[in-house]
Predict the 3D structure of the following.
Amino acid sequence: MNSALIELRGVSKSYRKGGETIDAIADIDLEVQETGMVAVVGPSGSGKSTLLHMLGAMDRPTRGEINVAGQVVNRLSQGELTRFRRQTVGFVFQTFNLIPNLTALENVALPMEFNGVSKAARLKRAKSLLERFQLGPRLKHRPRELSGGEMQRVAIARAVANEPRLVLADEPTGNLDSRSGQIIYEVLREISRERTVIVVTHAEDLARLADRVIHIRDGRLLDAPPMPGLPLDRNELHFVQQRAI
Amino acid sequence: MSAMSRGLRNPFRTRVRTAVVVVLLAIIIGLFAVMVQGALVTRQRLESLQANVRTVIELREAGAFGTGGFGADAPVGSAEMGREQGTAYFSTTSLAAIRRIPHADHIAKIEEYVMEPQIDTSVPNAYAMIIGLRPGAPLRAIGEVDYENARIVAGRDLGPQDENRDLAVVGRHYARERLGIAAPDGDAALSGKTIMLEGRPLQVIGIYTTDNDFGDNHVFVPIETFRRLLNPGDKLSKIWVTADSIANVESIRDELQQIPGVDAVTAAEQVASARATLGSISAATLYGSLLLFALGGVLVVFIMVLTTRERIKEIGTLKALGAPNREVVKQFLAEILALTGLAAVGAVAVATISGQILQTSVNVDVRIDGQTFLLIVLGGLIFAAIGSCYPIFKGIRLSPIQAMKNT
Ligand SMILES: Nc1ncnc2c1ncn2[C@@H]1O[C@H](COP(=O)(O)OP(=O)(O)OP(=O)(O)O)[C@@H](O)[C@H]1O
Ligand SMILES: [Mg+2]
């Protein structure tokens, strides 16, 4: 089946700031297929996070229609949005956002609890997910006892716990060294075999691992993406260098 | 790991702070429970005092001030003067006159007392009083002291069966000063104790206290015994008339006032001081409990606002992961219940200790019983309810992105 998982039609998101209107996202049309890894790149403030939040039903567009996995997200009620976040998407954050007083196992089991999975079943699945990401010996560790890379792998396990069709990651390697970042990208690639993974990144080499790169600037998609293998634009490069330090 | 157990575990994340909050809250809830009970107890006592007082009319010799012989009251011996002069005087004749007033059938009780000072300047309690009364009647003496609350601390009170027997009940102060009973609060203190009255030994069968040395300096004996030994003739010092209802007090008093040689006063002013004391304790405990309530409220709100702000990112994460509002609310409820639950346990200890302090310092009998426990549980629940308002309000309204942007 080759139908689109995500379909955006004329989507805009504007913020009013003291009489001035900022178009964080301006009239975007976009289709993303089922499965595979999509990188979203663009300079700071170009609207990458805003786009991701709208796809993940954490924010509503000002205009346009967002269709994800057959659901018109912009028309869902508050309760339906909560269910959508629980079942259709998984989120990976730059700052990991694990619950500090829960163990790795409990953190991964959390979304399944919200989804009504029995305790035995969710612990079993959480354990197997963590083992799959080489965290078998870390099940009982709390976040502060884990390295950044390990924390992010726990977060990815948590994001896929409810088997969502879409995983959204906003600069998942932003707080990691390049070695750990590399591992995270491999993990994301692996999980993208069964689902769509959209990852916002500044890291050029990591963006190149993606099946598709979406360029965004000033809230708009660039019509002609640069050829694969060419350096990203200067602004992005600046960020790549900054983060490499 | 449910929202409940997460919430119950949460207070232990910031142990020192939780300990401080729990201790403070325990003190507040414990004192709150004791104060509320203190307010209730004093209010009850005030009410019974007033109900009692309002139906009671005090009769004394016209012109006397109710000091029972120390001041302007004519001592028993001078009763003969009135008789000799042929004028009306305060005596058993007055009793008969009382029974003849038009409203007499609305009189519930008539209690007569005859008193004689026992002055001995060689002892510390120089001015004691011998009081004859119908055995079984309340231990009443003169003004000032709240005799309605005289209670027996050793032995027993006089009863109807003691009519004309050589027995006495003495005040705690009297027992200490004149009978050398060092610890007058136990039955053992009484064995073999007697007082001498006109050469006759009277067996001391009980010790009472009004918690006031002045009021505890009397000897109560059956009125027939008093007459037999002290020969006051038909003279009386005080008569207390109890009306059958408040509605009849005024008309009975007016009719009593007509009896020659009799001053009839409703006893309201007699207990004014007792009422004032009780009233101020009642007010203090009431305001105290209100203040504590406000303090506790501010404390739980403060701590929960702090906690919520610290956890804003965590709440946002839960919501981003698809936690329904109900889960967020449950978790906070469990957290604050854990906090106030721990405080309630401490509050039981605080209440026990402060109840005892209140008892010994202002003599308000606050028992630590089921009601205290209930008040503590209630206090804890109310504080939990107050404390959960902000986190629930904040948690429900919080949008995950806002929370994410927070650091
Ligand atoms: N709540 C808001 N109120 C006003 N303006 C906002 C708000 N959120 C985002 N913006 C604006 O929208 C634009 C897009 O922001 P967004 O966070 O999507 O950028 P980004 O591409 O993720 O940037 P970065 O790479 O720095 O994370 C920015 O100009 C930003 O200032
Ligand atoms: Mg961003």
User: Anything to note?
Assistant: Chain B touches chain A through 23 residues (CB under 8 Å). Residues A 15, 17, 22, 24, 42, 44-50 surround adenosine-5'-triphosphate (ligand 1) (CB under 6 Å).
